[in-house]
Amino acid sequence: MRVLIVDDEKLARDRLRELLSDIGGYTVIGEAMNGAEAVEKASELNPDVLLMDIRMPGMDGLEAAMHLMGMEHPPSVIFTTAYDQHALDAFDVNAVDYLLKPIRKDRLANALTKARKLTMRQIQEIHHARKDMPSRTHISVHLRGNIRLVPVPDIAYFLADSKYVVVRTATEEHLIEDSLVNLEKEFGERFLRIHRNALVATQFIKGIEKSPVGTWQVALRGVEKKLDVSRRHTAAVRRWARNRPAVAAAG
Fold first, then answer.
1. CA distance 97 to 114
2. Mind listing the domains of the chain with CATH numbers?
3. φ and ψ of 205, to 5 deg
4. What is the rounded distance in angstroms from the CA atom of residue 136 to the CA atom of residue 159?
5. According to the UniProt entry, which residues carry 4-aspartylphosphate (predicted)?
6. What are the tens digits of pLDDT across the range 143-181?
7. If 0-12 CB within 10 Å is exposed, 13-18 middle and 19+ buried, where does residue 165 land?
8. Closest residue by Cα to residue 160 from 131, 185, 193, 130
């Protein structure tokens, strides 16, 4: 089996390498120091299994596992963690295996033997089990079999388009399969609903203005396209603009 080791601590990665060498039958094809790097390397190297720490700076192991589920052939994931037993009660240990640090060789061998692929439902259950779980740091986009991670702070808006959602940054545009309802629930503090089909990142809003036909539009920094504000959302958008001195309302 081809193994990718993911941990922000070098000593922990070295320990896993030694244990895998002692067990035999496994090839370490790479290492990663955080969740984002794990997703990129997994997409490139196609490992059979990831040994992945849960708590890492930037993107943690749980978010990385959610992104990995989008691969055509997602790897198995075995979480490694320094959580105590009480904290582990929050996880469905029948659905996903985990190794409690310091990791023992017999425990690792057993976990690898029964390593199995996670389902999206299992990942989501684990994700929701953590009360302090932050929203995703990235949105995963699938391009020709590979995963492209788009940092959430780079996203100017989400725009519903048929069964897809357009993800727009200042320089790129991608399609994802998601719903605005879910995106609004997850990122509502960063985005403003201006239309039933549009969520706009508040940090990108330059101002609101009247269109030639008298409706309101949102002008964005670094993005030429202006987005329509629906009548239903006009009052809320103008109220938001009035409470933000940096945003100008013209006309």
1. 9
2. 2-129 (3.40.50.2300), 138-249 (2.40.50.1020)
3. -75, 120
4. 18
5. 53
6. 877 889 999 999 999 999 888 999 999 999 999 988 999
7. buried
8. 193
